């Protein structure tokens, strides 16, 4: 009898263990997951009714049911009610405003979203989630108009534009160009007014710039900046590569910056320096110089740059260079600065106050100094032998900032001087011309302020 009772107890224990194990398995299985669906959409949305609202719902076990309702507080309409035969773990939906069956003059609505998953939790009914979103209807485009702008822009040069952009929900504001570059304006003089300089790269055949203003509801206003486009032809140079240059300066640069290519042929080394290194160095410069002011400015004053006293120009801006070796075209590049030379180790000065944003070695530019002067304008100094300032310092007008040298891809002692506008290399000659600066920048600003004051 005792043996039978003992056997029965063991059986019962085993059954209990199996039941507990089964319940534990089910409890922890995906079938009985307990996480409610995640409804991904903003809590408050401005909507112009043109484009559908994007809704995303995620769940571990899969979404089996979704219901979406829109209400103005008095009337409501069912936008969607869907039972999914094939539950989705990641569900993307578009919500469109009803064109028929719902008439309302209200500007604020409540969007209710309900989602239920396929879990067997909650007595087989699944997990559910509800989210309510406040919708504000906004179909009014941002106010946008140009106050004043430069009359013309020269290929490789710069123009100025002052404009008004106003919207209570202004989200994006930029100037779009035909070559993919976006210029970002700076708040100017009074509320809702902006200023920006724009640049036409010397390598681009044409130029077009349009101000774009977007609000959070998706309304867009556009205003084309009308400029007289003055073409300018830049020099084309054919340069024959010499063995002493390839075995000397080029090989030294590869050894210093690209040692993994030290055993490459002299032509391969040149291409690495002229193409790969140049691109890397220019990308760094573009990144450093792409920013502009975000605080309001009331004026912009800058004097002509004369960085090197009694200097002669030995290479021009925009020069399109073709490199040949033994009669074969090997590579090409654009020279996007003005090369100035005087005496070895000559003092380099800046005529304008600014902040040093870069003072370091930069490949083909050698010891490279970059100073920010405001409104997206940067001055660049390459091939320096030494720096007399450092990153983060504020330099004063006519301060000696560096000395000329032969660092980087420089054969003789000289200064590579450049001007950049929000990352775009532009003609330094314009920024050395007092008359151009007055007509293209200062007069535009002065006239714009008078117009704004009359408003």
Task: Outline the secondary-structure elements.
Elements lengths: L1 H27 L9 E3 L3 E4 L5 E19 L4 E20 L12 E10 L10 E10 L5 E7 L2 E3 L3 E9 L3 E8 L4 E2 L2 E2 L5 E7 L9 E7 L4 E5 L3 E3 L5 E5 L2 H15 L8 H23 L23 E4 L3 E7 L2 E8 L2 E4 L5 E4 L3 E8 L5 E8 L2 E8 L1 E2 L6 E2 L3 E5 L11 E7 L2 E3 L7 H21 L1
Parallel strand pairs: 2-6, 8-16, 17-19
Antiparallel strand pairs: 1-3, 3-4, 3-5, 5-6, 7-9, 9-13, 10-11, 10-14, 12-13, 14-15, 18-21, 19-20, 21-29, 22-28, 23-24, 23-27, 24-25, 25-29, 26-28, 29-30
Helix pairs in contact: 2-3
Can you tell me the residue ranges where pLDDT is under 50 for at least 5 consecutive residues? none
The CATH fourth-level homologous superfamily of the largest domain: Glucose Permease (Domain IIA)
**How much helical structure, as a percent, in the residues?**
10-25%
Number of helices: 4
Quaternary status: single chain
Terminal CA distance: 108 Å
Shape: extended
Report on the biggest sheet.
8 strands, antiparallel
Count the beta strands. 30
CATH fold field value of the largest domain: Glucose Permease (Domain IIA)
Q: Mean pLDDT, nearest integer?
A: 92
Number of domains: 3
- State which percent range the strand residues make up: 35-45%
**Given this structure, which CATH class of the largest domain is correct?**
Mainly Beta
Which structural class matches the secondary elements?
alpha+beta
Whole-angstrom Rg: 33 Å
- Annotated CATH architecture of the largest domain: Distorted Sandwich
